[in-house]
Amino acid sequence: MTLIFSFRDLPSLDKLLSSDAFKPLLADYGHQLVSRQVRLVLEDLRQSIRENKPLAIDLKAPELSHKMAQLVRSSLNQSMQSRLRLVFNLTGVVLHTNLGRALLPEMAVEAVVEAMRNPMNLEYDLISGGRGDRDDLIEDLLCELTGAEAATVVNNNAAAVLLMLNSLAYEREVVVSRGELVEIGGAFRIPDIMKRANAKLVEIGTTNRTHARDYEQAISDKTSMLMKVHCSNYEISGFTKEVSVAEVSTIAQKHGLPATVDLGSGTLVDLTKWGLPAEVTVRQTIEAGADIVTFSGDKLLGGPQAGLIVGRADLIAQIKKNPLKRALRVGKITLAALEPILQLYRSPELLAERLTTMRLFTRAPSAIKQTAEALQASLQQWVGADFQVEVAPMASQIGSGAMPVELLDSYGLAIRYVGAGRPGRHLLALEERLRGLSKPVIGRIAEDTLLLDMRCLESHQEAEFSEQLQQDLTSI
Ligand SMILES: *Cc1c(COP(=O)(O)O)cnc(C)c1O
User: Does the reported pTM lie above 0.85?
Assistant: First the structure.
């Protein structure tokens, strides 16, 4: 049945807003928002009439204002839905930059909640009653954990590198190996940051080989520092030569220059203790002679987004004096989350139990397999007979550019298309269906298979996962 309406059938805004049907809506959302939404709904209807399209509503129905109120409420509900959505990260990448990187343990979450609710001594010295420094809240801890003399914290590691260069290399030269001119996802490139920091990049060596003499020869009276950058998301293999932090530091010291290291991920503990790939620690880098080390708060550290700068006290003092420090400083929410995370590192034996990211990195393949097995049937039912769901071994990644070539043994559900025709399009459609769930499920496609890696879906979330699939089936 197609009903034809004219513009004259549309109810007026004033009439709708003064009707009884709109009273609850006005009470819930207020006049301004409701009238804006009514206008939008009326405009949609007008457009449909203009284009002779079927309307979302019968304009001649009795109780039209009630029907309109329903329509407006549902479109308002839709527009009120948070744009920030929680998802299931089944990509196999634990620290997924696009999915928010590190997940925080409950005690850090609670500290954040309290910090948002209450006043605190963010920059207030409780002993003198005078003004304090927000860095004081975490400086001692960072020094204890890294062996550095001093520390400061900014918004993220990109900010840390920018601030470090702008403070210590302003209008002077910075010597970096060509093998370390890294680009991190999201447009962080060492040469670009260097320019914005108003420092001059002096490239030395070649992509695959840089020697100690390359550093020596590049030093002039314009040199401000020798800098090393962790390759993070790539690895150069084959005929290669890299100069170690220790060697670079020795050369720098001989010339009275600081050696700085952008460590990227930056871990505070030896990960091999948990059977994880080897990664140099911040402490080892300081002990090797680095004068400044910068690293991220939400990569291997497993904390909130932040950029940590540790090193020599005189250089940290210079960095803190830079007016840019004020522009790049962290808020109280970050500090509230960071402090308890750093406290956890004082008991490293307990990290795998207490630090969420470490728990995920070290989760036993047998436990991950159990999760995959527990969810196989409900997923098979949800995808239907055109697909086959199987428990399969997979390889997870740490993520965020940490150890790009090292893989962690994992398990998950592998979904193959077994219906008629080529699988490509069907798998893409299935991936889209998973993303369309109210808590979207994010997997990845490889070799005509949709892979859902279960490393980051812990046993206490299994019920939530299968219940959502069940509910989605019954709602169709
Ligand atoms: C990740 C990374 C950065 C950027 O750190 P953010 O915390 O994402 O700002 C800078 N340098 C290196 C080497 C990195 O790996």
Answer: yes
